[in-house]
Amino acid sequence: MKELYSGYSKKTEKELKELWKNSLITFDTNVILNLYRYSDSTRVAILELIKKFEKQIFLAYQVGLEYNRNRYEIISDQENSHNDFLKKLKIIEDDLNSKDSPPFLSDSLHNSLSKVFNNVEKEVKEHIESFLKMPENDEIFNKIDKLFNGKITEKFDEERIKQIYQEGKLRFDKKIPPGYEDHKKPEETRYGDLIFWLQILEKSKAEKKSIILISDERKEDWIWKLKNGKTIGPRQELLEEMKTFSGKDFHIYSTERFLNFGQMYLQENVNDKAIKEIENIKKSDLDAQIRELQKLSESAILKSQERQKTYYQRIEKYLEQLTPREADVFRLNAGIGSQDAMSLREIAELFDLSPSMVSKIKNNAVEKLRKISDNDKLID
Hints:
Blueprint: H1 13-22, E1 24-27, H2 29-33, H3 40-52, E2 57-58, H4 61-97, H5 107-133, H6 139-147, H7 158-173, H8 187-190, H9 192-207, E3 211-214, E4 223-225, E5 231-234, H10 236-246, E6 250-253, H11 255-265, H12 272-284, H13 287-319, H14 324-334, H15 344-351, H16 355-373
Parallel strand pairs: 1-2, 1-3, 3-6
Antiparallel strand pairs: 4-5
Helix pairs in contact: 3-12, 4-5, 4-9, 4-13, 11-12, 14-16, 15-16
């Protein structure tokens, strides 16, 4: 039964090891473009692993074309996203420093937060600077160019492309993978996945090799998904078409699973940090960092608010021991129980007293509070 319905069978561990040993390995455009989104250490880990499989790797012409079409846009997007991040960071920082923020944030806590913001801002600006320089000196492009030099499949001629467009219309109508979920795209890009797939098929047949595709594509015209969202592997139609066309096998790994299984196959330590970064970027991009900074800020504000509440509770206890006029003048001048503190002149106008009299009342109140609080050092 497994032979008859091979597209529906999950590969065993033995079969996967055999694939890693004997297959050709190729990469989707999204994997190559995502290199611009990773940290230096994660990018290096991926590129070094690719290099270790240099005898097995190749790139479909369509992927190289899409990469070159889109890399400047990706660089620009990264520059913009980092600038947006800085703007959001500034808003958070300004909130902490604004007059509406709690006035009792300790100097040590404020300094710690400032250091965090300054360090983040400095690093993000360094990244922006590197993106600005990339159009003239793109080291990522240079490394990819070197890795795949002489390892790119032949370009389809115009006649073949026209045939694929016609074939694509029929396949998409019947929802034959891959690429049918791109049916709303303009015609010049609508059949990119299909062209890519056919180039993979022809490479497999010419080299008489199975294919491992590294792709971050999660669409259902590539991936077999259950109703609960769990992924099983490549669409069974793709496996069967590969078997029919070249007599060989086919499998898909995401970038993080490529790192995981690739390093395990080479008997190297798995780079868990890089894998985690890739997973996090897929989930939340820079917004995750924004939320972490907001949590940090909110925690600091909450602590300050708690201290402020305790402070006012103790003050009110002491104010009960003053005369009503002394307590009122002190509250208004300190801004206790109101949004803004009032000047002595404003308080004098409110009570129809002279400013000197209000000043005297305030000084009496402060002196009494100092004595009441003893060595509590609550009042300066």
